[in-house]
Amino acid sequence: MQGGKKTVLVINGPNLNLLGTREPHLYGHETLQDVEIAGQKQAKELNANVTFFQSNWEGAIVDKIQEARTNGTDGIVINPGGFTHTSVAIRDALLAVSIPFIELHVSNIHAREEWRHHSYFSDKAKAIIVGCGAAGYGYAIEHVAKKFPERP
């Protein structure tokens, strides 16, 4: 909790800075900025804090997860992008901080190439949101704000 409000950290991995312009037939036309603006509006309605972070660098994501351990974050929403299928380091960071998290994918990774079907995060996530487009971020933020327990 921060300032008496449930606190959500939303992490976006590689190439999500191109949301809205990269393969819009798969990922839609909403930009990451659109997602962040909607998330901040939603946070006000839920009386919550939401922080967004995007990086194309694995180590920066690990650092951000580790910071969350002591800054009052109650839950993490992570769209790991391509790191979904490759990053033991991000998985280990999520497990090390013991903060519950939701795995999120804008597209349905299970309806795409077979190599996208495996996730290093799914077996540890409290929930998985797949294939709902940018609206998935709203579902995830609401779930954390309403259902995740406050952390001490």
Automatic annotation (TrEMBL):
Similarity comment: family membership: Belongs to the type-II 3-dehydroquinase family.
Protein name per UniProt: Catabolic 3-dehydroquinase
Binding site for substrate: 79, 85, 92, 106-107, 116
GO biological process: 3,4-dihydroxybenzoate biosynthetic process; quinate catabolic process
Catalytic-site annotation from UniProt: 27 (proton acceptor), 105 (proton donor)
InterPro entries (alphabetical): DHquinase_II, DHquinase_II_CS, DHquinase_II_sf
Enzyme Commission number(s) from the entry: 4.2.1.10
